[in-house]
Amino acid sequence: MIAPRTEGRKFIGIDFTKDPLPTGHFERCSFARCSFTRADIAARTFLDCAFETCELSMARITRTSIRECAFRHCKLLGVSFDHGQTNLFSADFTDCIMDSCSFQGIALQRTHFMGCRMHAADFTRADLGGVAFERCDLTDAVFEGCDLQRSDFRTAHGFVIDPEQNRMKGARFALDGLPGLLARHGLRVEY
Fold first, then answer.
1. Which strand ranges, in their side-by-side order, compose the sheet holding 5-7?
2. 108 — alpha (psi -120 to 50), left (phi > 0) or beta?
3. What tens-digit pLDDT sequence spans the chain (191 residues)?
4. Could you tell me the domains of the chain?
5. Regarding beta strands 24-27 and 44-47, do their DSSP bridges make them parallel or antiparallel, or are they unpaired?
6. Contact status, residue 29 vs residue 7, Cβ threshold 8 Å
7. Residues 87 and 105 sit within 8 Å (Cβ to Cβ)
8. d(C-alpha 62, C-alpha 42), whole Å
9. pLDDT at residue number 183
10. Do residues 56 and 32 make contact, with C-beta atoms less than 8 angstroms apart?
11. How much is the pTM?
12. Residue 187: Cβ-neighbour burial (10 angstroms; 0-12, 13-18, 19+)
């Protein structure tokens, strides 16, 4: 059976925890001030969709495909992006709260993070090659076994990354980021 297709529709102020989002394929749709808190949005496809000021904390996205989507001013606490369709995952996150999100093992090269708070986010074994974390707060985020080659952390803060556990050739850091790279060695950087 072919999933229903919804194109170009605007969803404004809808609480999808009470009125579930129908299954199917959503293309070029916009979601503004909608609530998906703990909502089951599994097995859906979002292509070129925009989410503005939405609440998606703990949303269940098993087998959900997110491609070329934009999230602005959204709250996404504890979302397990690694449970979704991880192939072709691509999104822009701007000024979002993304504490405790999981991106384990996902190829994120076509993803951008700008001005996001990502406390305790889990990037274990993620491919972050070339990803920029512009003005992001990465306090307690986990980077283990990652490909961080050509990634840009120059304006990010709060991160602790072990260069011995990650591939980092060509990654960019500001001088302020040195303590986060040397923490494992017990070195204190003062300036």
1. 5-7, 24-27, 44-47, 65-67
2. alpha
3. 567 999 999 999 999 999 999 999 999 999 999 999 999 999 999 999 999 999 999 999 999 999 999 999 999 999 999 988 877 789 999 999 999 999 999 999 989 999 999 999 999 999 999 999 999 999 999 999 999 999 999 999 999 999 999 999 999 999 988 889 988 878 777 77
4. 1-94 (2.160.20.80), 98-108+116-186 (2.160.20.80)
5. parallel
6. yes
7. no
8. 5
9. 82
10. no
11. 0.93
12. exposed
Q: Would you state the structure tokens that stand for residue 17, as one six-digit string?
A: 């925890």
Length in residues, the chain = 191
State how far the Cα of 141 lies from the Cα of 102, in Å rounded to an integer: 10
Q: What is the DSSP string of 107-130?
A: B-TT-EEES-B-TT-B-TT-B-TT
Residue type (1 letter), 162: D
The tokens for 27 are 């293309």
